[in-house]
Design a protein that fits this description.
The protein is an all-beta fold. 0% of the residues lie in helices and 46% in strands.
Protein backbone atom coordinates (compact mmCIF):
# COMPACT_ATOMS: atom_id res chain seq x y z
CA UNK A 1 0.00 0.00 0.00
CA UNK A 2 0.90 3.58 -0.44
CA UNK A 3 0.82 5.95 2.52
CA UNK A 4 -0.67 9.40 2.11
CA UNK A 5 -0.16 12.17 4.60
CA UNK A 6 -2.87 14.75 5.13
CA UNK A 7 -2.93 17.61 7.57
CA UNK A 8 -6.32 18.09 9.18
CA UNK A 9 -7.39 21.20 11.00
CA UNK A 10 -9.66 20.32 13.89
CA UNK A 11 -12.34 22.70 15.02
CA UNK A 12 -12.37 23.31 18.77
CA UNK A 13 -15.37 21.77 20.53
CA UNK A 14 -17.78 23.54 22.87
CA UNK A 15 -19.39 22.51 26.16
CA UNK A 16 -22.99 23.76 25.98
CA UNK A 17 -24.72 24.51 29.26
CA UNK A 18 -27.55 26.68 30.38
CA UNK A 19 -31.10 26.65 31.66
CA UNK A 20 -34.59 25.81 30.35
CA UNK A 21 -37.35 28.08 31.68
CA UNK A 22 -41.12 28.36 31.53
CA UNK A 23 -41.67 31.41 29.28
CA UNK A 24 -44.49 32.76 31.46
CA UNK A 25 -43.02 32.32 34.96
CA UNK A 26 -39.31 32.27 34.05
CA UNK A 27 -38.93 29.36 36.52
CA UNK A 28 -36.54 26.54 35.60
CA UNK A 29 -38.23 23.44 34.14
CA UNK A 30 -36.98 20.06 35.40
CA UNK A 31 -36.81 16.95 33.24
CA UNK A 32 -36.56 18.67 29.83
CA UNK A 33 -34.80 16.68 27.12
CA UNK A 34 -32.40 19.03 25.31
CA UNK A 35 -31.24 17.59 21.96
CA UNK A 36 -28.33 19.32 20.22
CA UNK A 37 -28.84 18.30 16.56
CA UNK A 38 -28.30 14.64 17.49
CA UNK A 39 -24.74 15.30 18.71
CA UNK A 40 -25.80 15.26 22.35
CA UNK A 41 -28.92 14.77 24.46
CA UNK A 42 -29.10 15.92 28.08
CA UNK A 43 -31.89 16.35 30.67
CA UNK A 44 -32.38 19.45 32.78
CA UNK A 45 -32.08 19.13 36.56
CA UNK A 46 -34.57 20.28 39.22
CA UNK A 47 -33.67 23.94 38.56
CA UNK A 48 -33.91 23.60 34.79
CA UNK A 49 -30.11 23.62 34.38
CA UNK A 50 -28.30 21.39 31.87
CA UNK A 51 -24.65 20.79 31.00
CA UNK A 52 -22.89 18.77 28.31
CA UNK A 53 -20.70 15.98 29.73
CA UNK A 54 -18.36 16.22 26.71
CA UNK A 55 -17.42 18.66 23.95
CA UNK A 56 -19.46 18.83 20.75
CA UNK A 57 -18.85 20.69 17.47
CA UNK A 58 -20.26 24.23 17.18
CA UNK A 59 -22.69 22.87 14.55
CA UNK A 60 -24.57 21.25 17.46
CA UNK A 61 -26.00 24.70 18.26
CA UNK A 62 -27.61 25.10 14.84
CA UNK A 63 -30.68 23.10 15.81
CA UNK A 64 -31.68 22.61 19.46
CA UNK A 65 -34.88 20.70 20.25
CA UNK A 66 -36.41 20.86 23.75
CA UNK A 67 -39.19 18.52 24.83
CA UNK A 68 -41.15 17.80 28.00
CA UNK A 69 -44.52 16.02 28.35
CA UNK A 70 -46.18 19.11 29.90
CA UNK A 71 -44.93 21.64 27.32
CA UNK A 72 -44.95 22.18 23.59
CA UNK A 73 -41.94 20.75 21.80
CA UNK A 74 -39.80 23.65 20.59
CA UNK A 75 -37.00 23.57 18.02
CA UNK A 76 -34.59 26.48 18.00
CA UNK A 77 -32.98 26.81 14.55
CA UNK A 78 -29.81 28.87 14.05
CA UNK A 79 -30.34 31.04 17.11
CA UNK A 80 -27.76 33.69 17.94
CA UNK A 81 -25.91 32.03 20.84
CA UNK A 82 -22.93 34.15 21.77
CA UNK A 83 -21.81 32.15 24.79
CA UNK A 84 -22.49 28.37 24.69
CA UNK A 85 -21.99 28.24 28.47
CA UNK A 86 -25.00 30.54 29.08
CA UNK A 87 -27.79 29.19 26.87
CA UNK A 88 -31.34 30.13 27.89
CA UNK A 89 -34.19 28.16 26.28
CA UNK A 90 -37.88 28.90 26.85
CA UNK A 91 -40.74 26.41 26.91
CA UNK A 92 -44.34 27.41 26.32
CA UNK A 93 -47.82 26.07 27.00
CA UNK A 94 -51.41 27.29 26.84
CA UNK A 95 -54.66 26.56 28.69
CA UNK A 96 -56.39 23.96 26.50
CA UNK A 97 -56.64 20.20 27.13
CA UNK A 98 -57.08 17.09 25.01
CA UNK A 99 -57.90 13.79 26.66
CA UNK A 100 -59.15 10.43 25.53
CA UNK A 101 -59.02 6.67 25.69
CA UNK A 102 -58.10 4.22 22.96
CA UNK A 103 -60.76 1.86 21.71
CA UNK A 104 -60.17 -0.82 19.13
CA UNK A 105 -62.13 -0.71 15.89
CA UNK A 106 -61.26 -4.23 14.78
CA UNK A 107 -61.60 -7.58 16.46
CA UNK A 108 -58.75 -8.55 18.73
CA UNK A 109 -56.76 -7.06 21.54
CA UNK A 110 -54.86 -3.82 21.44
CA UNK A 111 -51.09 -4.17 21.88
CA UNK A 112 -49.52 -3.22 25.21
CA UNK A 113 -48.39 0.31 24.33
CA UNK A 114 -49.39 3.15 22.05
CA UNK A 115 -47.59 6.33 21.04
CA UNK A 116 -49.99 9.29 21.04
CA UNK A 117 -48.92 12.56 19.44
CA UNK A 118 -50.39 16.01 18.83
CA UNK A 119 -49.28 17.87 15.70
CA UNK A 120 -50.16 21.58 15.44
CA UNK A 121 -51.38 22.88 12.06
CA UNK A 122 -48.81 25.50 11.04
CA UNK A 123 -50.67 26.35 7.80
CA UNK A 124 -49.83 25.50 4.23
CA UNK A 125 -50.25 21.77 4.87
CA UNK A 126 -47.42 21.77 7.43
CA UNK A 127 -47.88 20.14 10.85
CA UNK A 128 -45.40 20.33 13.72
CA UNK A 129 -45.20 17.76 16.51
CA UNK A 130 -45.94 19.55 19.81
CA UNK A 131 -46.55 16.72 22.30
CA UNK A 132 -45.92 12.99 22.34
CA UNK A 133 -46.37 10.31 25.01
CA UNK A 134 -46.09 6.55 25.23
CA UNK A 135 -48.98 5.01 27.19
CA UNK A 136 -50.35 1.59 28.11
CA UNK A 137 -53.30 1.02 25.74
CA UNK A 138 -55.56 0.27 28.71
CA UNK A 139 -55.12 3.77 30.17
CA UNK A 140 -56.57 7.14 29.21
CA UNK A 141 -54.26 9.84 27.86
CA UNK A 142 -54.27 13.55 28.62
CA UNK A 143 -52.41 16.52 27.18
CA UNK A 144 -52.58 19.56 29.44
CA UNK A 145 -51.87 23.24 28.87
CA UNK A 146 -52.17 23.35 25.07
CA UNK A 147 -52.28 26.46 22.94
CA UNK A 148 -55.45 26.93 20.92
CA UNK A 149 -55.42 25.73 17.33
CA UNK A 150 -56.08 22.86 14.96
CA UNK A 151 -54.17 19.69 15.81
CA UNK A 152 -53.89 16.25 14.31
CA UNK A 153 -54.02 13.54 16.97
CA UNK A 154 -51.92 10.57 15.90
CA UNK A 155 -51.80 7.09 17.42
CA UNK A 156 -49.47 4.28 16.46
CA UNK A 157 -48.34 1.06 18.06
CA UNK A 158 -44.51 0.78 18.14
CA UNK A 159 -43.13 -2.68 17.42
CA UNK A 160 -46.30 -3.90 15.68
CA UNK A 161 -47.66 -4.04 12.14
CA UNK A 162 -50.91 -2.35 13.19
CA UNK A 163 -51.77 0.76 11.16
CA UNK A 164 -51.64 4.14 12.85
CA UNK A 165 -54.68 6.40 13.18
CA UNK A 166 -55.12 10.18 12.80
CA UNK A 167 -57.93 12.52 13.80
CA UNK A 168 -58.53 16.28 13.60
CA UNK A 169 -58.86 18.01 16.96
CA UNK A 170 -59.69 21.71 17.44
CA UNK A 171 -58.65 23.30 20.74
CA UNK A 172 -60.06 26.74 21.57
CA UNK A 173 -58.24 28.62 24.35
CA UNK A 174 -59.33 26.91 27.59
CA UNK A 175 -61.40 24.08 26.08
CA UNK A 176 -61.18 20.50 27.23
CA UNK A 177 -61.64 18.18 24.25
CA UNK A 178 -62.34 14.46 24.71
CA UNK A 179 -61.61 12.14 21.82
Amino acid sequence: GRATRRDLELEPGILPRGVVVDEMTQDGVAGVLVDFEGYLKVKSDSGGRFAAPYAVPPAALERIRVSHPDYDIVTYVKQAIFDPSQIRLGMTRGEGRVAGRLTHLVAGELPGQARVGLHLDMGGGRFELRREILIPTTEAFRFERLHGGRYILSVDFPGTDLPGRRRDVHVFSTDEVWV
